[in-house]
Amino acid sequence: MDDSDGSSILEKLDSVVPEQLQKFDAFPKLPATYKQRSESRGFLTLFVGLLTFLLILNDIGEFIWGWPDYEFSVDATKDSYMNVNVDLVVNMPCQFLSVDLRDAVGDRLYLSKGFRRDGSSFDHSQATSLKEHAAALSARQAISQSRKSRGFFGGVFGGAKTPAYRPTYNSKPDSTSCRIYGSLEVKKVTANLHVTTSGHGYASHQHVDHTQMNLSHIINEFSFGPYFPDITQPLDYSYE
């Protein structure tokens, strides 16, 4: 069979194939002049890939560690003790302050060494006065706000962490304000927590002059039971 016979067979096959199928090209070729490089230069592809990777990590983190779920109810346990969690800033130096607790049984606890005290700055720009705070926040709103959002990727970056108080920002021992914070186990009875100046209210070898007294304070945390920093308590960020 020569080349002429082969070409005639191909021509016969081409005549049988429909015209639309003859024009079909599985691998179309475009001239270089028809192509234009994207301005993003692949950054969008990298961003989508990174976002997908983070979402996968978040799902894995939630599967491994889960997430906290809170519910408010009446405490019906018969325990004799409970925790009190305090984090507040008083507009006085730490050496002038005394922290005491007196309960209904008549016992007095000297708690100045039980809580940690750091020199701090007194900034109430993000706090609201106690009267405004109480008027603006009802009990139902406080409960709804307590279910605080974990934020994006909380399962990855917020999982398996032990609740702890944040460190004092820009702490100085000789500061004019004092941050008092920590958790203590106390009797489960009615009691009063007193933050007073030395020599006032309770006997002390030190007596603070009245001109130096300024008990203005910001409450960052005041709660009972286990310490959960992610729950919004009714007195959080109130100023008096």
From TrEMBL:
Its main location: membrane. Keywords: Membrane, Transmembrane, Transmembrane helix. GO terms for cellular component: COPII-coated ER to Golgi transport vesicle; endoplasmic reticulum membrane; Golgi membrane. Residues 21-108 form the Endoplasmic reticulum vesicle transporter N-terminal domain. Residues 174-237 form the Endoplasmic reticulum vesicle transporter C-terminal domain. InterPro entries: Erv, Erv_C, Erv_N. GO terms for biological process: endoplasmic reticulum to Golgi vesicle-mediated transport; retrograde vesicle-mediated transport, Golgi to endoplasmic reticulum. It is found in: Membrane. The chain crosses the membrane at residues 43-67. This is DUF1692-domain-containing protein. It comes from Athelia psychrophila.
